[in-house]
């Protein structure tokens, strides 16, 4: 290859014979204004395609809304609204759940006195909606927030604002032609969730999976520990960190469920987005026993986004010890009897490939914890 001439194997060769300062003929003939007008017409049509159900009584804790439908190509977004006032005018919207398929994210917001609040877009899983594929959305009304699940998997939560959905008088779906709504009460959420898997017990940390084990681990998984975590044992979690690492949590809980909220006997939360310019990520330890207790915060994790990683949670004599790739990143003293742990939840930007329980061996500590 001549000096100074480079070829990138990842670059896509264009079909156009484009030279600097010229525009391909196909682009010149393309009417962007017409395309933008088509999109605006689609938005207007989506707003006109709506189904509203008036509430006979106000929503209360445990209220359960189920919405089904199928997104179509000619409607670029759809919305589930919970509101008060005139649903056909400019009534207040307590919760606005706006699915934007072209952009592949969901906006949550509140409208009061004809003014929108701050948008929320973060979620616990990847965008789950696709064109021409039926969906089922479950909405659970809780004391301080609404919980939203898509096809049986928890997707996001939205804290109550003003007006609260507890004062709502109607529920509306817009942008879906075959939408259905069912409103009732539930004692569990999500009702469509698959039964939780059981964390297998292996004889050692290096033991291969048994033939009867089924590899069904997925992001945001909840799994049962029927026999708990015996003293001197550890939970091992192999997985992959998301390339755009934001945060994730590993919870040891007393029940394998989303709601009613279980007690969390050990909560380890890695927050890579906090002062991300630093060479170590922040780790927050806590427990939820009806309410959060005092946090233990330390900058001890040194994780590489996009890489494989192994976490070990060891039940010791007086505390839970958490290791990342055999480096101790923190400990949390027992705030409830450790025998009460019956489930584990992995949520956020750490995607598990394998989870199992085994006897604990001496895990090396290559670095001391520093605050």
Automatic annotation (TrEMBL):
Domain of life: Eukaryota
CDD domains: GLECT (cd00070)
Keyword Chaperone: no
InterPro entries: ConA-like_dom_sf, Galectin-like, Galectin_CRD
Region forming the signal peptide: none
Cross-referenced SUPFAM superfamilies: Concanavalin A-like lectins/glucanases
Residue stretches making up the Galectin domain: 51-198, 221-358
Alphabetical UniProt keywords: Lectin
SMART domains to which the protein is assigned, alphabetical: Gal-bind_lectin, GLECT
The name this protein goes by in its record: Galectin
Organism the protein comes from: Chilo suppressalis (Asiatic rice borer moth)
